[in-house]
Structure formats: C-alpha cells, structure tokens
C-alpha cells in the first residue's frame, strides 16, 4: 500500500494541476477575506451609529465587539473548498480520460488498492488546500478588519480546524463522484451545478416548506453546517444571552440554516462522501477498461 | 500466490459487448521460452483477449490465468507481467522519466530502474521531455519501457511494432527473442503474419473471435500447399487425363492455365505426354504463409475492390 500511495503522490506532483487549482483557490480566499473585513467594518459602523441598541442589548456587547468576520469566513471556506473538490474529482475521471488508468490497474494488486491509495493521497491534498485557504483567508481578513471583529486565538484555531476538515471532506467527495461518473467534464459540471445552484434552490424550497432541518442532512447543507456552526458557536460564545429567533437568523447568515452541530454536520457529510465513494468503487470495480 | 510457471492460459474465453461477440470460446496456452504470435485481422478480438488476460476486461465466460492465477490474484502483478496495450496511456504534461517513476513506485522497484529501461528502449535523451510531444514510435517505446519496469516474467504486447521505424522493429525482434530465450514468456499480437513471422515460434490465429490455428509456426508452414501451374495445348484433355489418375484438385485459372495441387511438375508433365498434350509452360508455385493466413482468417471487415468507373475514358491510364 505504501508503494501505491507514493505512486499516487508522484502522479499529483508531476503535473501542474495542483498549483493550477491552488492559485485561484488562494486568490478567492484572499479576496473573500478582504471583502469580509471591509463589509464587517461597514456593518459595524452602521450598527453603532443607528439605533440598533436593542440588538446590542440582545447580544450583550457593543457592536464594535461583534465578531462579524466569522460569518464571512465561514462562507469563504464553503466557496473556496469547491476547488479542492474539483481537484479530487479529477483523480479517477482524469485517469480514465487520459487512459492512464490501464497502467494504474496493471501495477496495483487490485483496483480497490489503487483507489484507496488515491483516496489517501487526496486526503492529504485536501488538508494542504484547507491550510492554504485558511492562510489566505486569514491574511485578507486581518488586513481589512479591526481587531474587535476578529476571533481570539482559540477561535482562529477552531476555524482553521473546520476549514481543513471541510476541505478534506470536500476533496473526498470529489474523488467519489469522479469515480462514479468517469467523465471529467460531466463530473465537474455536475458538481458545480449541484453545489452552486441545485442545492441552494432545494434549501430555499425546504425552508419555504418549513422543514429546514432536512437541509442539514443534504451534502451541501451538511458541509456548510460544519463551518457555519463553528462560526455561529464562536460568535455566540463572545456574545451574551441570545434569543432563539436571533440565533436562527445568525445561523442562516453563516450558511448553517437548519444545520446540526458542527461535528454532526461533518459526520453526515463524511457519510455522503462514503456513499458516493462506495458507488464509485462499485462502478470502477466492474468496469471494462477497453 | 502464483506458481511462477510463466504459463499464460486462456480457457474457453468468451466476451460479449452488448450484442457484439468480440471473443467466442477461445482457448490457448502460451509457454515460457518462446515468442508466441497472436494473429488475426482487424476486429478479430485480439485486444479484447489480451485485456481479459490482464484483468482489464471481465470475461462473459471462461477463465484467463497467468502463472496459474487470475490477474487480480497475482499479488504484485507489475513484477509478474508487463504489458504494452496502446501507445496512449500517458499524461501529456508528464515527462517520460516522471511517468516511469510513478509506476516504478507502484511496482516497488528503485527509481534507477526508470532510467535503465529508458536507456534500453533508446529514449535516454528524451527522458525529461513531456510525453505530449512524443511521436507515435517514441510513445510505443515508452510503453515498452513501462512494461519492462518490473523485470516481468511474462510480456504481453498488443501490436508493439505500430509506429516503430525499421530499426526499431529489428531491435524489438531481437530483444523479444532474447527475452524469451531467458526462459520468459512473450505473447505478441499483430494483424500481419509477415510482421512477426521472423520473431515468433508459436502462433495463435483467430478470426471473428474464434481460434483458427494454434501451434508451432513450423507446423503451419508444413500445411502450405504446392501448386503446379501449367499451360497445355488442350486444357480439357489434360484435366481429364489427370482426373483419370486420381488427381482431383484441378482449377482453371482466368488466364487459361490449369492450377494442379498436391502433385509435382514432373507428374503433370508425364501425364501430359501420355495424353498427347503439349506443354507451353509449366511452373511450381508455393502458397506463401500470408495467403494461408488470409485463407484462415478471411477478413471479417474485408473491403471491396473499387467498382469500375463506367464513365472512364478508354485507355485513360493505360
Ligand atoms: N468497449 C467495446 N464496446 C463494444 N464493442 C467492442 C468494445 N471493444 C471491442 N469491441 C468489439 O469487439 C470486437 C473485437 O475488437 P478488438 O479490439 O478486440 O479487435 P482486435 O483484434 O484487437 O482488432 P485490431 O486489429 O483492429 O486492433 C470488435 O468487433 C469491436 O468492435
Ligand atoms: Mg487491437
């Protein structure tokens, strides 16, 4: 297995795809970070000068101490991790497309070995992407925010953990889908459509039907729930007593409407990634490579 | 684990793709120590059969084994069998050396092996070039280098001479023969008997997914027929005389000559003399291997001769 993992690692480092996707990821995270800081400052200024004192009473702290950047960062992570997901999606579909899968299967004890080795390597890449996202996002936010709106050290650590976990899980999900739909263009179009359009419409419908809890069990709902719930928890921990209605609004802002606790959300999404990977494995196992 | 015998066995292999039967009830054994040619016209099922041997295509029925085991039970398959299936399985932006290092890692051989096989196939100077820029022949050589990485006991090559220059073909020929002489197994497919005639000792000839001939090449040669082509003064008289002597395989050729099989020219000339027929010309003809191959395989997708153009000017090209 170690041999195969090394082979898969070499496959990823000997072509330019990893940095070709990492650059836009970093740019997006940085840009989103900068915008988050600017928008947070604008919002807090507005809240401080207007008569939103009732809200600040709710939250128990003055607006300049609201850690509003947390929401923007949660959203930034949700969006940026689309890139590592696409990177993962190319893992198997790309090999089928390029026909290198033949040699890959000829040099592995079994197809399952080859796929597991690939998955391990892409977990590593998911973590690398996650760290890069957190780094550039952090730089962007710090550059444009005032310190009152930034999380404390523990908050940063928690957010970084959520970001890396989220990135790993998204990458794994991509690997599974790429095996299930062995066509690069098809895989990527489907993933983007689903994560950017289809499920958002679905969330809207579910909220309208007043069954928002279902959202937390959907793929995008659960992965957003992971980062969103961390953000909301961190925000609330620095605020006072918050009524449930306000908490619901905050959750929606963080992209975690209807979501479970962060670790439950992570487990639900891991389940989705597992289901998709099992499906991809079944397809790949019985496939004729002609 | 496998038995190390070097035997490649196809047992009643059948593969259907939907309604297309690519391979039907195919059986043969390839032994170590010799080069076996796997021959058949386009679409005969060669590639499909080789891919079944290598566990890439799942047979509809039958069993394929290498060293007594199905491919997926070989453990470290890269060290047992090396394969060239097509000159396409490369990432265009990966260099030749990096391509080989990826699979060297997978097989578990040292990286130095990558440079060694590159040198062996004559790609040493192109090692750091991206494979996307390689010519067909260079890709074919790189595919062979990949197959040799694990120093395998069995080599399976699907039309490896495709795109090779004459020098490359000559090199491949001697390389495969010496590889087999080391006691290893070499199975090589081609749609041209002439292409591998000088390389192979055994042949498996298939057509439409079925075995037509399976055995030593020498045995195939012995099946070659000799014909006597004769131009007599009286065709019918000679034919009658020969039939009276029990010679049945007589054929009239379009040019007016007779083709008589299974006898020598002396026999024909003596008969003609006894029948009082003059002979204007006589010639013995060997049916070559290639024609035998045609007869055995009778092209599944044989094209038609172009229809004569009715408007063609008289003497236009003559
Ligand atoms: N994936 C596939 N789906 C459907 N039919 C297939 C598939 N692969 C091969 N076939 C069919 O199986 C038959 C045998 O094909 P195969 O490629 O094995 O022939 P071949 O002997 O290698 O021919 P060639 O000399 O042209 O390489 C053909 O009729 C082909 O169309
Ligand atoms: Mg073929």
From TrEMBL, chain A:
It comes from the Bacteria. The chain crosses the membrane at residues 16-35, 68-92, 120-143, 155-181, 188-209, 262-283. Keywords: Membrane, Transmembrane, Transmembrane helix. The keyword Transmembrane helix applies. This is ABC transporter permease. It comes from Lentzea flava.
From TrEMBL, chain B:
InterPro entries: AAA+_ATPase, ABC_transporter-like_ATP-bd, ABC_transporter-like_CS, P-loop_NTPase. Gene3D superfamilies: P-loop containing nucleotide triphosphate hydrolases. Residues 8-233 form the ABC transporter domain. The keyword Transport applies. CDD domains: ABC_BcrA_bacitracin_resist. Keywords: ATP-binding, Nucleotide-binding, Transport. One of its GO terms (molecular function) is ATP binding. PANTHER family: ABC TRANSPORTER, ATP-BINDING PROTEIN. Belongs to the ABC transporter superfamily. This is ABC transporter ATP-binding protein. It comes from Lentzea flava.
């Amino acid at each position: 297995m170690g041999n195969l993992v090394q082979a898969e690692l070499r496959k990823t480092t000997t072509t330019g795809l990893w940095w070709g996707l990492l650059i836009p990821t970093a740019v997006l995270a940085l840009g989103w970070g900068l915008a988050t800081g600017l928008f947070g400052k604008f919002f807090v200024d507005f809240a401080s000068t207007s008569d939103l004192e009732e809200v600040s009473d709710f939250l128990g702290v003055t607006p300049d101490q609201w850690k509003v950047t947390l929401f923007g960062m949660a959203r930034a992570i949700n969006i940026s991790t689309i890139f590592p997901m696409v990177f993962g999606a190319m893992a198997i579909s790309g090999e089928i497309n390029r026909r290198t899968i033949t040699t890959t299967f000829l040099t592995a004890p079994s197809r399952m070995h080859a796929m597991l080795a690939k998955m391990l390597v892409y977990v590593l890449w998911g973590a690398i992407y996650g760290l890069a996202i957190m780094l550039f996002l952090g730089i962007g936010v710090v550059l444009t925010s005032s310190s009152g709106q930034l999380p404390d050290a523990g908050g940063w650590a928690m957010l970084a953990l959520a970001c890396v976990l989220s990135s790993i899980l998204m990458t794994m999900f991509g690997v599974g889908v790429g095996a299930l739909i062995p066509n690069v263009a098809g895989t990527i179009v489907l993933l983007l459509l689903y994560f950017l359009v289809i499920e958002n419409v679905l969330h809207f419908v579910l909220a309208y039907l007043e069954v928002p809890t279902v959202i937390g069990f959907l793929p995008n709902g659960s992965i957003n729930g992971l980062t969103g719930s961390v953000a909301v928890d961190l925000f609330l921990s620095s605020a006072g007593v918050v009524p449930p209605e306000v908490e619901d609004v905050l959750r929606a802002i963080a992209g975690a409407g209807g979501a479970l606790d962060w670790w439950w959300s992570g487990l639900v999404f891991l389940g989705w990634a597992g289901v998709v990977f099992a499906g991809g494995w079944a397809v790949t196992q019985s496939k004729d490579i002609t | 684990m496998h038995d190390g015998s070097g035997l490649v066995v196809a047992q009643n292999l059948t593969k259907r793709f939907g309604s297309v039967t690519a391979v039907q009830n195919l059986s043969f054994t390839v032994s170590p120590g010799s080069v076996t040619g796997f021959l058949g016209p386009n679409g005969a099922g060669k590639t499909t059969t080789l891919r079944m041997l290598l566990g890439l295509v799942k047979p509809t029925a039958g069993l394929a084994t290498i060293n007594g085991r199905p491919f997926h039970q070989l453990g470290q398959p890269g060290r047992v069998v090396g394969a060239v299936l097509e000159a396409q399985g490369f990432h265009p932006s990966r260099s030749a050396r990096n391509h080989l290092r990826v699979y060297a890692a997978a097989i578990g051989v040292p990286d130095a092996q990558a440079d060694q096989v590159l040198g062996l196939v004559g790609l040493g100077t192109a090692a750091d070039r991206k494979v996307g820029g390689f010519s067909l022949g260079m890709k074919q050589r790189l595919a062979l280098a990949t197959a040799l990485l694990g120093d395998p006991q069995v080599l399976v090559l699907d039309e490896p001479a495709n795109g090779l220059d004459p020098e490359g073909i000559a090199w491949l020929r001697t390389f495969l023969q010496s590889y087999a002489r080391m006691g290893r197994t070499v199975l090589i497919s081609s749609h041209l008997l002439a292409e591998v005639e000088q390389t192979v000792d055994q042949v498996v000839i298939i057509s439409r997914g079925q075995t037509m001939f399976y055995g030593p090449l020498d045995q195939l040669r012995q099946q070659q027929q000799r014909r006597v082509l004769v131009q007599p003064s009286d065709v019918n008289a000679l034919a009658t005389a020969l039939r009276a002597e029990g010679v049945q395989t007589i054929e009239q050729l379009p040019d007016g000559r007779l083709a008589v099989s299974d006898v020598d020219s002396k026999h024909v000339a003596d008969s003609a003399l006894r029948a009082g027929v003059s002979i204007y010309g006589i010639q013995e003809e060997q049916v070559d291997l290639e024609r035998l191959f045609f007869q055995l395989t009778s092209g599944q997708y044989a094209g038609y001769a172009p229809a004569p153009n009715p408007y063609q000017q008289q003497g236009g090209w003559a």
